[in-house]
Amino acid sequence: MFFLYDLAVQFSAFILRILAFFSPKINLFVRGRQQTAGILKNFREPGKKLIWMHTASLGEFEQGLPVLEQLQQEYPHYQFLVSFFSPSGYEVKKGKVKGAHTCYLPLDQRNKVKQFLDTLNPEIAIFVKYEIWPNYFRELKHRQIPLIMVSAIFREKQIYFKWYGSFMRKVLDSVSHFYLQDKRSEELLLGIGIQNLSVSGDTRFDRVYKIRNQQSSLDFMEHFKGNRFCLVMGSSWPEDEALLPPLLEDSEKEKLCLVIAPHKTDSKTIEKLHRILGEQAVRYSQREEMDLDTARILIVDTIGLLTKIYGYADLAYVGGGFATGLHNTLEPAVYGIPVLCGPQYEGFKEAEDLVRLGGVRVTGHASEFKETVLEFLNSPAKKVEIGSINLKYITENKGASIQILDGIRTLLK
């Protein structure tokens, strides 16, 4: 079966090299991996122990960060490497992870895996959430390098639990320990005979709670918000932004200000969004030239600010719930405010939980979105009541990192 898998990966690599000529993102994916060997050769110090964390993209990186940061404090004499699968993670974080080097993960081809691990020779491999690669897992087990999965979550529809999934089930046998997000994942793994597991929760709760406690002021947001009701639309896509026109045309719009941080911040996306929103919108990159005190809409045309901007919100809308996949609802929820999202939130455990509890409201069309925003705008007590549900949920679920770190310490002795 590994033979067929290797053929499939090699074929995928060939196709990606062709597609790279037509897609800038795939070009980054291919060309970036060509640099990995050089990055490792220059950074790896012989004789020095190393901890390796692998994440798919930016969201998984944030998920693993609480564990990484604590390990850096406790093992300052170690080297640290964070690898990424996706350009949307690596291109944002390359060279910017404090105390760690970054690189693309080479494709899961047997020879590339061996070369990567020959150079790296980690003491432990930490894979975040659901990154499972058969050749990497098998080679780590062969080399007796501990492999753990943190904040892992499993669903019935995944191949591991199907009658035809024996190959991928066998891959899971290479994992030293699973730190799972929920009891359902535990039940599923126990059902296929895997017992080296713990339900520790989701490390994202620790991450967002830490960000809240480290919250520092943003001068531009102080000026922009003033005493107005602030709605923040974060990680938005065109389908999300289509909800805005009826609200912006309402007579009560004068009582609120809007911050919109689109998922894509390329010039074409920002220019199109600015045209739609009109003269009442100001771009973050042009804030020095504009009067933020009187502006009604602020377009955040950069990355890295959204988690702090949520701290100024009275109400947040999290994008991706119409077609592309819901983004992180915990980031605004930790500030004790109501959160809105689109209708496609199933499969995102924290969103499912908060919808059930009432802290996240689902909105399916523009008139419903407008009605919900105005409800919170005109009822401060309702805003506090709903927001407290979200903060309570996060405080009750943080602490996953503590259990995971206890397990890692035993493996590094």
How does this structure look, described?
The chain has 20 helices and 14 strands. Helix 8 (166-172) links the parallel strand 5 and strand 6 (177-180). Strands 3-2-1-4-5-6-7 form a 7-stranded parallel β-sheet, with helices on both faces. Strands 10-11-9-8-12-13-14 form a 7-stranded parallel β-sheet. With 413 residues, it is an alpha/beta fold. 38% of the residues are buried. Helix 4 (58-74) packs across helix 10 and helix 6 (110-120) crosses helix 7. The mean pLDDT is 93. The chain is 47% helix and 16% strand.
Percentage of β-strand residues: 15-25%
User: What would you report as the Rg, rounded to the nearest angstrom?
Assistant: 23 Å
| Mean pLDDT score | 93
CATH architecture descriptor text of the largest domain: 3-Layer(aba) Sandwich
| Rough outline | globular
The CATH class label of the largest domain is Alpha Beta
The CATH H-level homologous superfamily of the largest domain: 3-Deoxy-D-manno-octulosonic-acid transferase, N-terminal domain
Secondary structure class reads: alpha/beta
- Amino-to-carboxy terminus distance: 36 Å
Widest sheet, order of strands: 3-2-1-4-5-6-7
State the helicity in percent bands. Answer: 40-55%
How would a textbook summarize the main sheet? 7 strands, parallel
- The strand count comes to 14
Low-confidence stretches: none
CATH topology of the largest domain: Rossmann fold
**What is the number of helical segments per DSSP (H or I, 4+ residues)?**
20
Please indicate the count of domains: 2
